[in-house]
Design a protein that fits this description.
about 170 residues; Rossmann fold; 3-stranded parallel beta sheet; two-stranded antiparallel sheet; 5 strands; alpha/beta; about 15% strand; single chain
Length: about 170
């Protein structure tokens, strides 16, 4: 499947980074899967090219969790630096723990979450099954809990493109 939550997150990360770096900001990246890697904040065209190179190495693999990635990378993130989390918010029991750690440290947190369950539903011909309904309710509850912690959450539906997500981020 060419259009999926991971590919959307990669495209959004590249687009956001381009916009931020063109505005003289520095951008860092933490990716996790089979390992946790930290791309320390850089700016300028060289920094952007290095970040794009790092993004090409993203793959859906491994057992690391958001909480372990946050714990590992907190020393690299200056306090109160805005953090954008790109995640489908699925299959990771530590999401709330990771979010709490970021918010507790004073980071303004924005979560952009392309819905994996909606992509699954599209693949199965739009069928609404009891399993889908339970997953959707669980996801809605998780989003509500993350918002209650103080994070801003953008639920990115499959029918909307990267440009839509960028506009939502800047609102």
């Amino acid at each position: 499947m060419v259009d999926n939550p991971l590919e959307r997150s990669i495209r959004l990360c590249a687009s956001l980074s381009s916009l931020l770096i063109s505005g003289t900001n520095r951008v860092g990246l933490i990716r996790y899967g089979s390992t946790v890697s930290v791309f320390k904040p850089e700016g300028g065209s060289t920094g952007f090219n290095n970040l794009l190179h790092t993004l090409t190495q993203v793959e859906p693999a491994g057992y690391n969790t958001l909480a372990s990635a946050v714990h590992y990378s907190l020393p690299y993130i200056p306090p109160e630096t805005p953090v954008i989390v790109l995640s489908p918010l699925s299959l990771d029991p530590s999401i709330k723990e990771g979010m709490k750690s970021l918010v507790a440290r004073g980071h303004p947190v924005l979560v952009v979450t392309p819905s994996g369950i909606e992509f699954e539903r599209m693949i199965t011909g739009g069928k609404i099954t009891p399993k889908y309904i339970l997953k959707r309710i669980g996801r809605a509850n998780l989003i509500r809990e993350i918002r209650a912690m103080g994070a801003r959450v953008i639920d990115w539906p499959p029918g909307k493109d990267v440009e839509w997500a960028l506009r939502e981020v800047w609102e």
